[in-house]
Every structure is written in C-alpha cells, then in structure tokens.
Specification:
Number of helices: 11
Strand order of the largest sheet: 9-7-5-2-10-1-11-15-19-20
Bound molecules: guanosine-5'-diphosphate, 6-O-phosphoryl inosine monophosphate, magnesium ion
Structural class: alpha/beta
Number of strands: 20
Length: about 425
C-alpha cells in the first residue's frame, strides 16, 4: 500500500487539521512528518473546537493510530499539555499514539536562543513563533541535538548538560535576560518516556506492507519550506512532500496521492514576501470574516488574493495529485474576487516565481471574477453551489491542471463537499 500526503500549498494555516480529521476514517494510521509546536491545527466537531500542535489530527477518530515521526521536533511540555487536554475530553490517546525515538527534542535553551536571535535581527526578524524550532533543527543538522530515544539512556543527564552548556555559551553573545523553565521540562520529559517510543520507520513500513492505509500530515506550508519557500522568511524544515519521506522513512516510490490544500484566498503570519497582500479594507474584511488570527500565537494573519504563480509552483514541487480548497465561504460576501494570474517584472510577464520573491519588484496581473454573493456553508453537494462560484473553481482547475477533490465551506467536519 502507498502512503497519501496532506500538505499546505501556501504559507500555512490552510486548514490541514480540519481535512486530516475529515479524511482519517479512511486510514489506519495518521503520521506527522516535520515541524513541531509552531504548528496549530484546528479541528471542529460536535460543538468542540481544539487546536493541536504536535499530536496528529487523526487522534479524535478512535479507530486510528497516530504517529509523531522522526522529522518532528518535540517540546515535551507542550506535548504533555496537549495529551492532558485530549484525555480530559475522554479520548484514549496513550494506546493510540506512537512517538519516534529519532524525533529531536526542543530544550528550554532552544526557545531562549530563538527569542534572542529574533530580537537581534530587529527589522529583519522572521516573525518566528518562538517555539525553538530553528535552533532545534540547527542542532539536528549540526549533529549535536538530543533525540527522544536519548531519554532512555543512563547518560541522558550528561547529554542534556553538555548541550545546555553549549547553548549558554551561545547566549553570552546576546544582551538579554532569561529564565529557563527546566523543572517543568524535566517533569514532562519523564512523562514522555512513558509513551510508546518506537522505531517509527519500521512501524510505518510494516503498516504499509500489511496493506493498511497511512495518511501523512504536513505542517506549515510549501511557501515556508526551507528550500523552496520565501527564504530566509521560512521555517527550518522541508514542509513539501519530500519531507514525508525523510520525516518518516518512507521511500519516494511508496508515496501515493498528494492532497494539496489551499485557501480560496491567501494568508501569511510573520514576515516575508506576500505579493497579493491587501493592506486595505478588503484585506481587513477577509481577516474578520475568515477569523484570520494565528492558532498558535494569536497574531493577526496578513491577507490577500489567491496567487496562482505561487500555487502552481507549490503543485509542481509537491507532485500534487488532487486539490482541496478551503474557506471558500469566507468570500461569500465579496462583490469582486480577484486572482493573481501572472507577475510583471521589469516589463516582462511571468507565471513562474523569481529567485527571490522578497526583494523582487513585482506588479501583479489579476483576473477578476464576479462574487457569488450567496451563503455556501449550508450547501451539501457541488451541484447546489452557485454558478459564479463554479466559474471560479473551473478557472483554478484549468490553470493548475488538477481537479478539486474537496471543497470546504466552514470550519466544522460537516461543512465539507466531496466531488
Ligand atoms: P492548519 O494549520 O492548516 O490546520 O489551519 P489552522 O487551524 O491554523 O487555520 C485554519 C482556520 O480556519 C481554523 O480556525 C479552522 O477552524 C478554520 N477553517 C478550516 N476550514 C474552514 C472553512 O472551510 N471555512 C471557514 N470559515 N473556516 C475554516
Ligand atoms: P501550521 O502547521 C503559519 C511561520 C511563522 C514565521 C515562520 C518561521 O499551523 O500551518 P518558526 O516558528 O517555524 O521559526 O517560524 O513560519 N509559521 C507558520 N505560519 N502556520 C504555521 O503552521 C506556521 N509555523 C510557522 O509565523 O513566519
Ligand atoms: Mg495553523
């Protein structure tokens, strides 16, 4: 059996959590493959709303196993808080959650370094969620990180102290005051040891070999990928489909469908290029109607029109097989809906992305659509959707040469149309 992948095609917060929860009943296992508690994946069902940061979004479908893969970075404090919240909802999580021994640990000092380096950057700051993501991946690739499996070693305290001392040395170059929340971290790390810590590359390949289905859950979005995003305003992992292979130990030949998720418009939180950004009343209306405030940090999200050159780029890099459009309902009350179809740079027209989207002077070429001016969140089938909306969908399908498999018309599980 092949593993399917759900991932974001924009700058994160596309609605991955909702869709993974929606698709989970068809899968035996859901697996997170990269990122960490910088992610905030919202789920809504039975009048409940929950935001997951590290735990995969398949956890509320009680038949499904959930795996935190080797590519994820874990803050034990945040993971344990999540587990407590989920258990308080009467969900048995511990028997259905597997954690890779190869996943790296976010230490209290990683978070302090994250904050210190952002503060030192001043105007050029990335706008990080300050969860210690960058410094933890730096230690991973720098070959000095600590992994979940190290918690089981007699020498763990020694390893921890060595890495912490290295961090304290780094922190001497910054003029900052800080407090390390070590006691809480150590308690949470002790609890983490009691979870099912596994050699996840074997677990997942065995599941696939026994003809059971696996859904890989991406975090962030393709335009935040460390290689293909708007560098340096990106996160520190490979958010694209290839990240599912390295972040779980799945061979590329074992990847099946790639579900690319995008909003009917665009948002971004943090700094960096956003060619179609709207700094006006229309943008404010999108933010208000779409409740565009960060699920992890609460920061207002920047808003703008759908960007086809960026979307096509993400579809290419990920090998997307099916598209999923989110939050179409947010545009219900707009008279005119715009889509960026090309970029004009130095008088020339492109539908590809320039090397550096952050510094290139771009004029956007838009195509305008009439708004559908109808409330679509009650629609249960594609047939019932307004013609103006279908025109918008047809155009996106033509331009991307991909079909839209699912259209989400509200935050709730039920508000989802399958075509
Ligand atoms: P993720 O990080 O990709 O999982 O997305 P987030 O959870 O950070 O942000 C998506 C937000 O949009 C959440 O508040 C969801 O509840 C909400 N949402 C998801 N799908 C829809 C939709 O189709 N319509 C509306 N109005 N809200 C949605
Ligand atoms: P989900 O999974 C949106 C952004 C941050 C910042 C940049 C780097 O919920 O879609 P980091 O903390 O990784 O050092 O931040 O990436 N960012 C996200 N934006 N959704 C996310 O996750 C994000 N995770 C990180 O705002 O611009
Ligand atoms: Mg989010």
């Amino acid at each position: 059996m092949k593993a399917d992948v759900v991932l974001g095609l924009q700058w994160g917060d596309e609605g991955k959590g909702k869709i993974v929860d929606f698709l989970t009943p068809d899968y035996y296992m859901v697996a997170r493959f990269q990122g960490g508690p910088n992610a905030g994946h919202s789920l809504e069902f039975n009048d409940k709303k929950i935001v997951l940061h590290t735990v995969p979004s398949g956890i509320f479908r009680t038949e499904t196993l959930n795996l935190i893969g080797n590519g994820v970075v874990i803050d034990p404090v945040i993971l344990m808080e999540e587990i407590d919240t989920i258990e308080a909802m009467d969900v048995d999580i511990k028997s259905r959650l597997l954690v890779s021994k190869r996943a790296h640990l976010i230490l209290p000092t990683h978070k302090v370094i994250d904050a210190a380096s952002e503060a030192a950057k001043g105007e050029t700051k990335i706008g990080s969620t300050l969860k210690g993501i960058g410094p933890t991946y730096m230690d991973k690739t720098g070959r000095s990180g600590l992994r979940v499996g190290d918690l089981l070693s007699d020498k763990f305290d020694e390893y921890y102290t060595a890495l912490k001392n290295k961090h304290l040395d780094i922190l001497k170059q910054f003029d900052i005051e800080y407090k390390l929340e070590e006691e809480k971290w150590m308690q949470a790390a002790e609890r983490l040891k009691t979870l099912k810590l596994v050699d996840s590359e074997y677990e997942i390949n065995n599941v696939l070999s026994s003809h059971q289905r696996v859904l890989c859950e991406g975090a962030q979005g393709s335009m935040l990928d460390v290689d293909f995003g708007t560098y340096p305003y990106v996160t520190s992992s490979n958010t694209v489909c290839a990240g599912a292979c390295t972040g779980l130990g799945i061979a590329p030949s074992r990847i099946g469908d790639v579900f690319g998720i995008f909003k009917a418009y665009c948002t971004r939180v943090g700094s960096g290029a956003f060619p179609t950004e709207l700094n006006d009343e229309t943008g404010e209306k999108m933010r208000k109607t779409g409740r565009e405030f960060g699920a992890t940090t609460g920061r207002p999200r920047r808003t703008g029109w759908l960007d086809l050159p960026a979307l096509k780029y993400a579809i290419m890099i990920n090998g997307v097989t099916q598209l999923i459009m989110m939050k179409a309902d947010v545009l219900d009350d707009f008279d005119k809906i715009r889509v960026a179809v090309a970029y004009k740079i130095d008088g020339k027209i492109y539908d590809t992305l320039p090397y550096d989207l952050n510094t290139t002077n771009i004029e956007i070429i838009y195509k305008d659509f009439e708004g559908w001016k109808t409330k679509i969140s009650n629609c249960k089938s594609y047939k019932k959707l307004p013609v103006a909306f279908k025109n918008y969908v047809d155009f996106i399908e033509q331009e991307t040469r991909r079909s839209l498999k699912v259209i989400s018309v509200g935050p709730n599980r039920e508000e989802t149309i399958i075509r």
